[in-house]
Amino acid sequence: MDIGNWPAYPHQVDQLVAAWQRKYSRYLRVDSLTQYLRHKVYMLTVTDPSVPARKKRKQMFTVPHAHEPAGTVGSLNFIHQLLTGRHLDGAKSTLDRKRILKETLVSFNPDSNPGGRMRAPVHFWDGSRYTNDEFWEWMRGIDPDSGERFKRVARWSIRKEHPLRIGIVYEQLNSHEFVEPNRDRGSSLLRLVRKYCRRWRYDQYLSLHQTEFQNRKDRANAMIILPVLHAELPAKLQEYNEAWAWDIIHRWKSVGARPIAEVKPLGYGEPHRSWFIQCWGPLQKKTPCITVEIQNNNKRTPPEKQLLLADTAIRESVERLLEV
Question: Residue 179's closest CA among 164, 198, 161, 197?
Answer without folding.
Answer: 161
